[in-house]
UniProtKB/TrEMBL annotation:
Coiled-coil residue spans: none
InterPro entries according to UniProt: Cytidylate_kin, Cytidylate_kinase_dom, P-loop_NTPase
UniProt protein name: Cytidylate kinase
Domain Cytidylate kinase: 5-215
Gene: cmk
Record-linked NCBIfam families: cmk
Main localization (coarse): cytoplasm
Gene Ontology molecular function, alphabetical: ATP binding; CMP kinase activity; dCMP kinase activity
A cellular component annotation (GO) from this entry: cytoplasm
Keywords for the protein's UniProt record, in alphabetical order: ATP-binding, Cytoplasm, Kinase, Nucleotide-binding, Transferase
Length: 223
């Protein structure tokens, strides 16, 4: 049998990389919901949609078709996987993420992606809003120091500058506050989510812990 697995957590908690590896090992489809917002932002950019024109955005979201095939992202049948890291996309995405009608449309889209089960979905409101009935829920977290160091290492590998550890801590703290205090779909720990603090775990140990809990869940469901 296949179930849906929902994973939430703050920025830098490792939820995306862990979710992707978990999905790979159990043969599930991995979906990073953040990419739905990036994909729509990209769609608006290439179609010259004015981010300040709400009517234009409402029309655009109705014509927006998003699909995930393996590791590839398709928008209206175009493979846009390599386009979602564009600087203009990353700079523009905040113009749409706070809009209630966009979030509502995205939640509907994200739920449709999980309707047949067999999905590992990550984000910041998956356990609480998008997939509240998911059979298995995780909340991945880590200390601010560990999360900032992870970002610092990522930036170093990708040659991203400036790359200041204290500044990264400050940015992550502000991001946490914004995520937890936003009016729609705030970052919360649901009562039925399993909290996994991976501050002192290696990546392999994190995956091992998730797999153990997944296997226990499947065993209990089959009994």
């Amino acid at each position: 049998m296949k179930i849906n697995i929902a994973i939430d957590g703050p920025a830098g908690s490792g939820k995306s990389s862990a979710g992707a590896e978990l999905a790979k090992q159990i043969g599930y489809q991995f979906i990073d919901t953040g990419l739905t917002y990036r994909a729509f932002t990209y769609y608006c950019v290439v179609n010259n949609v004015d981010f300040n024109d709400y009517q234009a955005l409402q029309a655009a979201i109705k014509n927006f078709n998003f699909q995930v095939v393996g590791d590839d992202i398709f928008v209206n049948n175009e493979n846009v996987t390599d386009q979602l890291q564009q600087e203009i996309v990353l700079k523009s995405i905040n113009k749409i993420t706070g809009l209630a009608f966009i979030r509502e449309a995205m939640v509907e889209l994200q739920r449709s992606l999980a309707k047949d089960h067999g999905v590992v979905m990550v984000g910041r409101d998956i356990t609480s809003v998008v997939l509240p009935t998911a059979e298995l829920k995780f909340f991945l977290t880590a200390s601010i120091e560990v999360r900032a160091l992870r970002r610092w290492n990522q930036n170093k590998v990708n040659n991203i500058v400036p790359n200041d550890l204290e500044l990264l801590k400050e940015q992550l703290t502000k991001r946490d506050q914004a995520d937890m205090q936003r009016a729609t779909g705030p970052l919360v720990v649901t009562s039925d989510a399993i909290v996994l603090n991976n501050s002192n775990l290696t990546f392999a140990e994190t995956i091992q812990a998730l797999l153990k809990l997944y296997n226990e869940k499947i065993k209990s469901e089959e009994q």
